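Let us practice reading a record.
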Amino acid sequence: MRAEFRLSDLIPSKFVAETVSEDSDTILVTARAASPSGCCPLCGTTSSRVHSRYGRTVSDLPCCGRRVELRVEARRFVCTASHCRQKIFSERFGDSVLPARSRRTARLEYLVHHLGLALGGRPAASFAKRLMLPVSNDTLLRVVRRRARLPIEPLTVVGIDDWAFRRNCRYGTIVCDLERHRIVKLLPDREIDTVAAFLAGHTTIKVLSRDRGGGYGEAGIRSLPGVVQVADRWHLMENASAVFLDAVRKSMHSIRVAIGATIVDSKLLSAAECLQYEGFIRREEANAAIVALHKQGVPIKEIVRRVGHSRGLVRKVIRGLRSEVFRTRESTLDRFLSILDEEWCSGCRNGAELWRRLKTRGFSGSLRVVTEWATRRRRSEQTTGPHLQKVPSARTIARMLTVGRDHLTKAETVTVTTIERDVPMLSSAREIIDDFHSIIRTRTVARLDPWVEAASSSLVASFARGIIKDHDAVHAAVTEPWSNGQTEGHINRLKVVKRQMYGRAKIDLLEARLIGAT
């Protein structure tokens, strides 16, 4: 049995199609309201007394690859209520069908809104053109802004973090509802007063998840004294790893002594290494001057003025973080050093032949890398006195000390064993950091206070002091199920949306797109 098909089924409800005309790219449908009466928008009185008529042309969803326009014959009614100030009113078709003064039907407006949410301005306008939707990029953005609705549900558990309008120049703040997995607000900056004002307007918040920065914690204490603040677990572990790397940098002199690389023979250096070594000598002289002034009690600001270096560099020197001789980088040859040693000891001393043999073993580097290694090895055998032993960078040493022994080469294992034997403070710091990571992973809060006591006398004492200062938030990070990882994910989505907007991503538009898409 064939289903009965009517033209009115293709246009929005509450309309009756009268005539249809079409051309190459447009279908024009003349329609009228199905209801014989209208309702006064001011007093609600129903009236069927028609005063006059006028035409409205609105766009509707495309059909068969062509635009559809509705020419609606709208009526003006006379309000029959004697007490109503609205004597004449235009009939309304409902916001779910055709909103007042709208140039698009509600279902087309819904599609335009979601195109703007998903793609933004120009990309959405280009895609809409292919869909036969007559909208511009400015229209799309206006619709997104106009239909933006902020969440009204009471907040209980929120995550808060900063994000960059422009890195190192201007930052904003994002607030997320961790229970409902959605963004609730973007703040124009990360000032304490701005965040405190927002939190003060939401007294239902019970849990505040944040990073290790002190600004958001202070804002929470100021506005919501009873709120439970939770430090982000990922940041805690990342901070612990960064502190251990700083401890390795401070111990580089002791590491060079342990490995036996305190004497540098310039005859064994390549041209690039000679330039690096000369720079190291100059840095050591500047470091000695800065340390001498610091020991005399000169403030950092005055040291900066006297030596002419930046404040950050002066702080690094005072903390012992600027003592590496060479900027060592990981080489493609590192995995094949044991093979090269075997070939060299077996009598193969030609760089090109060594390179050809390595190629058969999976080496993908260039001939120059192997010939330079052979030249350096040959010079070291010809030198009778002490010579340079290349020390890995601080970051490489930190990696070797923290990964499992099964993942190290034989040479790396020997280096790690030497460091553990001759630099026991660094080995102790590694064990302390491993214990902290274990506390965070296993959520054993009973071990936190003993760990702080043990770490206070180690190379990572500064990190322990930070844990003491933020003890309640760190304690909550171990015991509470909440963390700021979800907020970091929303920040990544915010960055994608911001970069789609090509400079037009003002905060209200960003907020409308991010909140509307959830």
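A brief commentary: Residues 199 and 257 are 54 Å apart (CA to CA).
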